[in-house]
Each structure stands twice: as C-alpha cells, then as structure tokens.
Amino acid sequence: MSLRGKKLGILISCTPDEANFAHGLHVAEAALAQGVDVYLYCIDEAVPGISNTRLQKLKRGGLKLYACAFGANRRNLPLDDKAVFAGLTVVSDLIAATDKFIAFN
After folding, report:
1. The pLDDT of residue 2 is above 80
2. Cross-strand partners of 7
3. Side-by-side strand order, sheet with 100-104
4. What is the CATH classification number for the domain harbouring 88?
5. Which of 87, 47, 84 is nearest to 64 (CA)?
C-alpha cells in the first residue's frame, strides 16, 4: 500500500536533547521518504529545537515546519524563517486535516 499523498501531523513538546525529539524527527524522515506530506509543530520545550540541523534539513526536504509563536516569545527566540510561527489554531487545523496525528512528549 502506497502512502504517497497521505498527510501526517506530528506534535513535539519535549526538549531537543530528549529521545522523543529525535524519535519524532525519525518518524518524519521515514514518512517523507515514503512520499507522505509531513506537518510538524514544535510546542513548549521543543520550540528551541527549530534550529536543530537535522530538523532544518528535513524542512529543506519538504517538511512543513511550524512552531508555537507564544513559546518562542516566552523564550526570547526570534520569529524568523526557520519555521512558520503560529498559535494553537494551527494545531487544531492539523489534527483535522491530516490522515494521522501523533505526539511526542
């Protein structure tokens, strides 16, 4: 069964040094390799991880990367082009619009 064209939403809320952050990136990488449209949202402790080299490489490879604007503001992180900064409405939209939505905490 081909997964090409399916949509996967991923929410990551743990720090970039935790195993679940890396696991979330691994799932995103594997899905992209199968032709899945992947939408990844970093929230809470994961927001500083948007600068992660591996995550930015996935973004260049087609990953749609979002980050919590409130979380970035609380951590004094710049709202730059590393991710699309948005609020929880986007998370709700991703849950509704993807075929599968998973979270890594």
Report:
1. no
2. 37
3. 84-86, 64-68, 37-42, 7-12, 100-104
4. 3.40.1260.10
5. 84
Range of weakest confidence among 2-6, 16-20, 43-47, 52-56: 2-6
Counted domains in the chain: 1
What pTM was computed for the model? Answer: 0.95
The pLDDT tens digits for 65-104 are: 999 999 999 999 999 999 999 999 999 999 999 999 999 9
Task: Tell me how far apart the 2 most distant CA atoms of the chain are, in Å.
Answer: 44
C-alpha torsion sign, points 10, 18, 67, 83: negative
In a domain, 38, yes or no: yes
